[in-house]
TrEMBL record:
Keywords: Electron transport, Heme, Iron, Membrane, Metal-binding, Transmembrane, Transmembrane helix, Transport. The chain crosses the membrane at residues 6-25. This is Cytochrome c. The keyword Zinc does not apply. Residues 43-119 form the Cytochrome c domain. PANTHER family: CYTOCHROME C-553-LIKE, MENAQUINOL-CYTOCHROME C REDUCTASE CYTOCHROME B_C SUBUNIT. InterPro entries: Cyt_c-like_dom (IPR009056), Cyt_c-like_dom_sf (IPR036909), Cyt_c_BACSU-c550-type (IPR012218), Cyt_C_IC (IPR008168), Cytochrome_c550/c551-like (IPR051811).
Amino acid sequence: MQKWIMSGVLTIAVVMAIVLMFTLPGKEQVAEEEKPTMPEVTMDAAAAESTIKAQGCISCHGDQLQGAVGPNLQKIGSQLSAEEIYTIITKGKGGMPSFKDKLKAEEIANVAQWLAEKK
């Protein structure tokens, strides 16, 4: 009787291990979540400004990006690269929410490039 119970427990453990192997994220997926890859886009300043206004960024960063509740972004390009800005907009940071579900990756990349040019 004990052999049957032990073999049943072992079988369940093996099945659970196989299921976990295929459902847990791999190293590549975890790395992508940690640092999303910025798509290549041609920067469009007018579209970037429009996106910032439409998403309400000015409510925290000010209408001239001078800072308010959020940090001043007028010279953010001298502190962060476009990729770093892209990651922050995508994932959020501190009190800033993530915009990955609100904007397309290309829109975020355009805004990141536009902000990165502010030096």
